[in-house]
Write a structure and sequence with these properties.
The complex is a heterodimer of chains A (522) and B (129).
Chain A lengths: L61 H4 L17 H13 L21 H7 L2 H4 L11 H18 L3 E3 L5 H18 L6 E5 L5 H8 L3 E5 L9 H7 L4 E7 L11 H10 L3 E5 L12 H4 L3 E3 L2 H4 L14 E3 L11 E5 L2 E5 L19 H37 L15 E3 L11 H11 L5 E2 L9 E3 L7 H20 L1 H5 L12 H6 L13
Parallel strand pairs in A: 2-3, 2-4, 4-5, 5-6
Antiparallel strand pairs in A: 1-7, 6-7, 8-9, 10-12, 11-12
Chain B lengths: L7 E2 L4 E6 L2 E6 L1 H7 L2 E5 L6 E2 L4 E7 L3 E5 L4 E6 L8 H5 L8 E5 L11 H12 L1
Classes of the chains: A alpha/beta (522), B alpha+beta (129).
Chain lengths: 522, 129
């Protein structure tokens, strides 16, 4: 253990003597060599170039080969850099980032799951990755088979008759789902006028309803954070096309009256739309199709661990009950004997709402999701839900004495706290979130859901180990303590990132969105 | 928290100052405090019709985006347009500089649904529980 030279790695906590060297956050955050990096436009003008074009031979003058109207004059401030300059520029910027591969990322309602490298490897197989989207069916049978099997698996996992996998992401899936609902009602002679949406909904739900020409009607949740059948009954009439419900809802609470609510909506001819954003809590345990939902979108980039955010694109398949199958968008994959065929002709599906996405959808995400489903199997998927719920409840139990819990109702995969206990010291949710960065954690979702004042919404997901959760809990508890002992320190947080606390108000009120030559940015 | 005596209030935290057939509308001190720093505002145009209880605009803070609800129905006759470029006035002075629109009321009887200062203050306190 003892090193004869006496050298000690500086990250060891006990080695901290003076300065900030010993200031290690609960998540292990400490100092590191970080580069300042100007905008690419602000690099000193150089004569370097990153491309080597062949010399012009013969009497050709490129300027004369291109029509004058298409020629561009001098571009002021156009950077001129070598390949290495550009690579360093973007690599340095990337080191300022925090991702799930760097540290804990408990962004509630967004299910920031670790993306297993086995899924990444499968998606990079050239047979999938390099397949041209215009290949005839007989030359991409493997891709079609994977799409077909993914569709079958998603339908089975969620308890629906069939699924379209083409929508590009969650909100696009919602749009697709409500378009099908509209088509369903239209086929019965009346598209209807309203969509009911609980006050705990994702903001995309009312937007989806409005885009489909529906008026949204808000339904209030009860004091336990749940939607109550009486509230739905009072709002329900034959003008209502559908209700959009997230289950578990954005408080992380299971809508235990969902079957009764579905019955009320169905009795008046309405449909029940399920926002599958929180499906992770139910995987392999309960099926939305069995609860009375008629349509539901998946977020493969949440529940099935395909990259989320900048690593996307996303993928938002939509599952439907048998009554909605005729309206599914194209294309669809069907199995015919030993072969698979892509259905693209609307004549085969005259009631289809049509095409919502070019080609097949986000194929790379299908491969990743399918790889995950096969890697985990039914037992493994169930373990995901169980561990996700366990992890959220562990954090809840370990923090509820220092952070206010607005709802006593049991949590599933995420837990919502507030800043109520810190408000006396003038510490807000934003201060807590900012200080978590200094500890080395990505902040949780803040100020959402809107029904909770000062919400801090924590979703650990199933992949985090108990040690990570303990470190996060230690960080959160240290912040609660600091709120009492050193509130000014919290107001100034974070200090450790390359950029300290940003002036978000000024950034939003007076945004500078465009670089111009010679501009000075403070 | 400041709630002037001469105003009438909604349960959605708008205030209303009535002069003859005209009602000037803004959001309350409580609303601006709960929203935090307001960074963006979307208001209707002069001549638009607004309906009691329905959204007439949008206010956005660093925390959240909220609809603005009309306390009374009628026609928008004036809009505080400088506010769009200086939404901080809503935080600093919600009842004077921070006024949003003026409505020519189509049905002044709707005013009877609004709350007087004491009732609104009580509503805010109960809401905080």
């Amino acid at each position: 253990m003892a090193n004869p030279t006496g050298w000690k790695p500086s990250m060891e906590k006990e080695s901290g003597s003076g300065g900030t060297a010993g200031d290690v956050g609960a998540g292990g955050a400490t100092r590191g060599l970080a580069y300042e990096e100007p905008l690419v436009f602000e690099h000193a003008a150089s004569e370097r170039v990153g491309a080597s074009l062949p010399a012009v031979t013969g009497k050709v003058d490129p300027a004369k080969e291109i029509p004058a109207a298409l020629l561009r004059g001098e571009i002021e401030g156009m950077p001129s850099l070598a390949e290495l300059d550009v690579v360093r520029h973007f690599t340095r910027l990337s080191t300022w980032n925090h991702g799930i591969d760097t540290g804990f990322y408990p962004l509630g309602s967004c299910t920031m799951k670790y993306n297993p490298k086995s899924s990444e490897a499968a998606a990079r197989l050239p047979g999938f990755a390099a397949a041209h989207p215009l290949l005839p069916d007989e030359m991409c049978q493997g891709s079609l088979e994977l799409m077909f099997k993914l569709e079958r698996a998603l339908s089975e996992i969620s308890g629906f008759a069939a699924t379209t996998i083409s929508p590009a992401a969650g909100a696009h899936g919602e749009l697709t789902g409500v378009m099908m609902i509209r088509a369903y009602h239209l086929a019965r002679g009346n598209a209807r006028k309203k969509v009911l949406i609980p006050d705990t909904a994702h903001g995309t739900n009312p937007a989806t309803a409005a885009l489909n020409g529906y008026r949204t009607v808000e339904v209030k949740s009860g004091p336990d954070g749940r939607l109550h059948p009486e509230a739905v009954k009072a709002a329900m009439d034959e003008e209502v096309a559908a209700i959009m419900i997230t289950n578990p809802n954005t408080l992380g609470v299971f809508e235990s009256d969902i079957a009764a609510i579905a019955e009320i909506v169905h009795a008046k001819g309405g449909l029940v739309y399920g926002d599958g954003a929180n499906l992770n809590a139910l995987l392999g345990v309960a099926r939305p199709g069995d609860m009375g939902f008629d349509v539901m979108q998946f977020n493969l980039h949440k529940t099935f661990a395909t990259p989320h955010g900048g690593g996307g694109p996303g993928s938002g398949p939509v599952a439907v009950k048998a009554s909605l199958v005729p309206f599914l968008p194209l294309p669809l994959v069907v199995q015919e004997g030993p072969a698979y065929r892509l259905v693209t002709d609307p004549k085969e599906r005259p009631q289809s709402i049509g095409r919502l996405r070019e080609f097949h959808g986000n194929m790379g995400m299908f491969v990743r999701a399918w790889a995950l489903i096969r890697e985990l199997g039914p037992e493994g998927l169930r373990r995901c839900a169980e561990l996700a719920v366990l992890n959220a409840n562990y954090v809840r139990a370990r923090l509820r004495d220092v952070y206010h819990l607005p709802y006593e109702t049991d949590s599933l995969h995420e837990v919502v706290f507030t800043d109520k206990l810190q408000k006396g010291a003038d510490i807000s949710t934003m201060d807590v979130a900012k200080r978590l960065i200094d500890h080395g954690f990505h902040p949780p979702t803040v100020y959402f859901p809107l029904v909770v004042s000062g919400a801090l919404m924590i979703e650990p997901t199933e992949t985090e180990a108990k040690e990570t959760l303990d470190a996060f809990v230690a960080g959160m508890r240290a912040i609660a303590e600091q709120a009492r002992s050193d509130p000014d320190g919290l107001h100034a947080a974070p200090q450790k990132p390359v950029r300290a606390r940003l002036d978000e108000v000024r950034a939003a009120r007076k945004p500078v969105l465009r670089w111009t030559p010679g501009m000075k940015v403070e | 928290m400041d709630f002037p005596d001469d105003l009438q209030y909604t349960r959605d935290h708008e205030w209303c100052r009535v002069q003859g057939k005209r009602a000037t509308v803004g959001i309350t001190d409580h609303a601006q405090d709960a929203l935090g720093d307001i960074v963006y505002l979307e208001l209707p145009a002069v001549g638009d019709e607004v309906k009691k209880g329905e959204a007439f605009g949008v206010v956005e803070s660093t925390k959240a985006v909220s609809d603005l609800f009309a306390p009374v129905s009628g026609k928008v006759v004036e809009v505080n347009s400088p506010l769009a470029d200086a939404p901080e006035a809503i935080n600093e002075d919600p009842y004077e500089e921070g006024w949003m629109i003026q409505i020519e009321m189509s049905d002044p009887k709707e005013l009877s649904d609004l709350l007087a200062k004491a009732a609104y203050q009580k509503f805010v306190e109960e809401d905080a529980e």
